[in-house]
Fold this protein.
Amino acid sequence: MKTLSTQFTKIALVMTTVCVTMGCSAVAKTQLADSNVNKNATLQAKAIDNALLYSDECITEREVVNAQKMWGNGIVRIGSVYSNNGDYALEAADFIQDMYGYDLSSVLFKPTLAANDQFRSSFDAALSYFVGGNDAYAEDKGFAIKPYTNVKFDNVGIINNSCRMAVAMGNYFFTDTSGGETKVEYTFAYVKDSDGDLRIVAHQSSLPYNPASN
């Protein structure tokens, strides 16, 4: 009888363990399902936000060229406002708002004349590069207030394989008030916002390699 009782006790323990395990598994599966629902809801919300921020239309090469002209004209305009003692900081802020996508997503901006803080991932950091005056970026002298009288783009190529983003690479030439011209290499990446305007989300520029400096 003792042996039989012991066997019944073992069976009862096994059954209890199985029940508990199955219960835990069911709870875990429920929690996992709830987590997946929450993740899906978050992804759907982000998709809706993106749909409101971005255009469904593909970016054309002509639009990229027009955006480049607007960028160059904006640089010249900031310098002109500065030369005429106007509010050049406000002009530059409007320029960044119109041309860059800081209000849409992260922006990858590595400007030409930045050595200590090479990457400008915020609106204020970009503004400092163009007009200076920010103690957090002491190296900035104000690129756009040199000033320049003309900016000319020479594209090596423009690709828009993904349709919703276009990338342009080449040289652009900055003409100063004395007629001197500076050649700079660039890569710009554009997206199109819900208003149909191209906005820069990646911008890298640098002076050409000079073997004599090595």
